[in-house]
Amino acid sequence: MNETALRIGFIGLGNMGGPMAANLVAAGHEVCGFDLSIRASDALVLAGGTAATSLAHAVENADVVISMLPAGQHVVAVYSGPDGVLRHAKEGALFIDCSTIDLENARSASAAAAAKGFEMLDAPVSGGIAGAAAGTLTFMVGGSVSGFARAEPLLAIMGQKSVYAGESGAGQAAKICNNMLLGISMIGTCEAFVLAERMGLEPQKLFDIASTSSGQCWSLTSYCPVPGPVESSPANRDYQPGFAAELMLKDLGLSQEAAKLFGTHTPLGQHAAQLYKDYCEHGGRGLDFSGIIKFLREKV
Ligand code: NAD
Predict the structure, then answer these.
(1) What is the three-class DSSP state of 133?
(2) Proportion of the chain above pLDDT 70, given as a percent
(3) What pairs with residue 10 in β-bridges?
(4) Local structure of residue 283 (DSSP, 8 states)
(5) Which residue among 247, 255, 289 has the greatest number of ligand 1 atoms within 8 angstroms of its CB, and so is best to mutate?
(6) How far is the CA of 268 from the centre of ligand 1 (A)?
(7) Could you tell me the residue ranges of all domains in the chain?
(8) Which of 67, 288, 35, 72 is nearest to 172 (CA)?
(9) What is the CATH number of domain 7-167?
């Protein structure tokens, strides 16, 4: 271990956490990871890290504790459960939660960390599995400015951009709003292609025109939901994810919880959540979120 290397406890080594932890190892840091899945832990060992036998083992010597877990209840359990990381981390450790979770749980995890004298950041990501593997994620960060400064060198290994969003929870707020907009824009893009097909307009023609007109958006130009125009789109691989529809449904659910909590009228967000729920219940769950075009096409 060189002088600038840090000891990192990494909790949650799944599709995203696994490659993020591997990138930290490749950059020379000492990573001790914990996951409930043996397969996920084994992959970290193959990448050069250490597999912890418990949460306590993963964090007891860590300078920084990073978590990448499915949802809010997992983060709260990992932080504050009877064997939780806040009980076992050493003094001065920095906590960074990169999971996408609701604001309430993010803030309560941060308050629990602060009560034990730890600094904690919420730092959800955009960029998906490909971005996690390539180290090109975007981090949106909530918490203290000093915590952000401490985290930045590590975030720069796992990602290409980190934006400080504001106080605790601001990173999650940014992620929730971004993904509500993404869900809505993907459905709109799909509707435009289906209508164009029915009117006899070639999909490539719609792409060529809309991508340089006022209908332009990321869902069209970077993640086109029809095969052909954008080589890297899951549409060209029979909608294998990518970003799974069930994760989009989860994020739209978070947006609707937030809308309710903060008394906000989001009719399109609400409708998008319902459409993704229907799509997931009709075979879309494990497919890419852009595959909702097939579900919309089948409706008359
Ligand atoms: P995943 O299900 O592949 O990985 C989560 C991992 O956490 C699993 O390996 C699971 O075993 C582990 N885990 C669950 N509870 C645990 C516990 N108590 N202790 C230790 N390990 C535990 O999910 P993912 O795709 O890696 O997503 C992780 C987070 O990143 C989610 O919040 C998701 O919304 C967010 N996210 C995912 C993507 C994506 O494209 N997959 C993109 C952006 C954000």
Answers:
(1) helix
(2) 99
(3) 33, 66
(4) I
(5) 247
(6) 27
(7) 7-167, 173-297
(8) 72
(9) 3.40.50.720
- Mark whether 175 is an active-site residue: yes
CATH homologous superfamily for 173-297?
N-(1-d-carboxylethyl)-l-norvaline Dehydrogenase; domain 2 (1.10.1040.10)
Total residue length of the chain: 300
Annotated active-site residue in 161, 175, 277, 294: 175
The 10s digit of each residue's pLDDT in 117-165 is 999 999 999 988 889 999 999 999 999 999 999 999 999 999 999 999 9
Distance (angstroms) between ligand 1 centre and the Cα of 2 equals 30
First to last CA, the chain: 62
Handedness of CA 213, 215, 217, 221 (dihedral sign): negative
The CA 122 to ligand 1 mean position distance, Å, reads 15
Grade residue 3 by pLDDT with cuts at 50, 70 and 90: low
Q: Find the 234 Cα to ligand 1 centroid distance in Å.
A: 21
Residue type at 127 in one-letter notation: G
Tell which atom from ligand 1 comes closest to the C-alpha of 244: 40
pLDDT of residue 2: 63
Mean pLDDT over all residues of the chain? 96
Position 257 scores a pLDDT of 97
Token readout for 88 is: 């076992």
Interval 185-238: pLDDT, tens: 999 999 999 999 999 999 999 999 999 999 999 999 999 999 999 999 999 999
Q: Whose Cα sits closest to atom 14 in ligand 1?
A: 69
Q: Please indicate whether residue 34, judged by its CB atom, sits closer than 6 Å to ligand 1.
A: yes
Predicted local distance difference test score (pLDDT) of residue 247: 92
